[in-house]
Write a structure and sequence with these properties.
By secondary structure, the chain is an alpha/beta fold. The chain has helices at residues 41-47, 97-100, 151-154, 160-170, 186-197, 212-218, 229-233, 253-256, 280-284, 298-311, 325-333, and strands spanning 2-7, 16-21, 29-38, 64-71, 83-86, 89-91, 112-113, 133-137, 142-143, 178-182, 201-206, 222-225, 239-244, 259-267, 289-292, 317-320, 340-344. It has two domains: 2-159 and 317-347, Quinone Oxidoreductase, Chain A, domain 1, CATH 3.90.180; 161-292, NAD(P)-binding Rossmann-like Domain (Rossmann fold, 3-Layer(aba) Sandwich). The two termini are 17 Å apart. Helix 4 crosses helix 10. The longest helix is centred in the C-terminal third of the chain and has 14 residues, at 298-311. Keywords: Metal-binding, Oxidoreductase, Zinc. Its cofactor is Zn(2+). One of its GO terms (molecular function) is zinc ion binding.
């Protein structure tokens, strides 16, 4: 079927309207009319070929919310009209140990991302949510329990939400645990909201005094300006877990010294060049660990959406229309958004 979309034909060209093709729904497929699509920094990196391997035409978007418009004959979990979402994954092998454990993001044969991944469908690679419609296997469609008025602000949960929720759950954020969130941007603002909702003592780290009140408003119990040596020193050896969302290279030792024995610093920001190598003694003297985390599996993403619906958690967003996307990318590079852009696909 023919579908309207917005995408790029080359790394040095602005995004533009285009027509793409979607497969007709198969027996296990769900067809979704896209209402909103969140804008992720990964979209920018891919469109502008800042990460290797971009395939053109490139239609980004992996924070998709909309409504079911058709289902295949064997689909039983979704019905027409239902509010649903699609995140960063649209397929995996479904047979390896990781997939068997509900960790499709670590599929040992390689998952299929929502855009820029090989697929049998035309044009040979997946095309994402900057479009009016998408067809996805029912195994990778998620139910949305938020009120209809919050649907746009749910979209970033499908990337920023699960990217922060998964490590917070894995490292047991909750009552009696002290958790730090480094960075107050698209990822960090979700980390603060989620850690607070999980019941952890939540401390936000920022380089800017001007963001102190914003972090407190998001749910932080306290805020540390990381450039203030006295404020940092006051928290030495006190954190069970620190989630670092910053996507720029920086000194990790400053945060490792804040961890308790057996504490973990988890990195989810992806800088364009490596962090300076940490001092090994900050690790071995406290049996501290540096770890990473990648989004989450489908079951955990559904768990996150249900948790957020129960707690009334959504992303703080600014709405845009498709013709504003390049301007939004430029502003995103300057961190000029609080805290995620979401595109209204009705304006396509």
């Amino acid at each position: 079927m023919t579908v309207k979309a917005y995408g790029a034909i080359a790394k040095d060209k602005p995004l533009e309207p285009m027509t793409i093709h979607r497969r007709a729904p198969g027996p296990h497929d769900v067809q979704i009319e896209i209402a909103y699509c969140g804008i992720c920094h990964s979209d920018l990196h891919t469109v502008r070929s800042e990460w290797p391997g971009t395939l053109y035409p490139c239609v980004p978007g992996h924070e998709i919310v909309g409504h079911v418009s058709a289902v295949g004959g064997h689909v039983s979990r979704f019905k027409v009209g239902e509010a649903v979402g699609v995140g960063c994954l649209v397929d995996s092998c479904q047979t390896c140990p990781s997939c068997g454990e509900g960790l499709e993001q670590f599929c040992e044969h390689g998952f299929t991302g929502t855009y820029n991944f090989p697929t049998p469908d035309a044009p040979g690679h997946t095309l994402g949510g900057y479009s009016q419609r998408i067809v996805v296997s029912e195994n990778f469609v998620l139910k949305i329990g938020h009120p209809a008025a919050q649907l746009a602000a749910v979209a970033p949960l499908l990337c920023a939400g699960i990217t922060t929720y998964s490590p917070l759950r894995h490292w047991q954020a909750g009552p009696g645990r002290k958790v730090g969130i480094v960075g107050i941007g698209g990822l960090g603002h979700m980390g603060i909201k989620l850690a607070h909702a999980m019941g952890a003592e939540t401390v936000a780290f920022t380089t800017s005094e001007s963001k102190r009140q914003a972090a407190l408003a998001l749910g932080a119990d306290s805020v540390v300006v990381s450039r203030n040596a006295d404020e940092m020193k006051a928290h030495a050896g006190s954190f069970h877990f620190i989630l670092d969302t910053v996507a720029a290279s920086h000194n990790l030792d400053a945060y490792l010294t804040l961890l308790k024995r057996d504490g973990t610093l988890c990195l989810v920001g992806a800088p364009d060049h490596a962090h300076p190598s940490p001092d090994v003694f900050n690790l071995i003297l406290g049996r501290r660990a540096i770890a990473g985390s990648l989004i989450g599996g489908i079951a955990e993403t559904q768990e996150m959406l249900d948790f957020c619906a129960e707690k009334g958690i959504v992303s703080d967003i600014e709405m845009i229309t498709p013709p504003q996307i390049d301007q939004a990318y430029d502003r995103m590079q300057k961190s000029d958004v609080k805290y995620r852009f979401v595109m209204d696909m009705a304006a396509l």
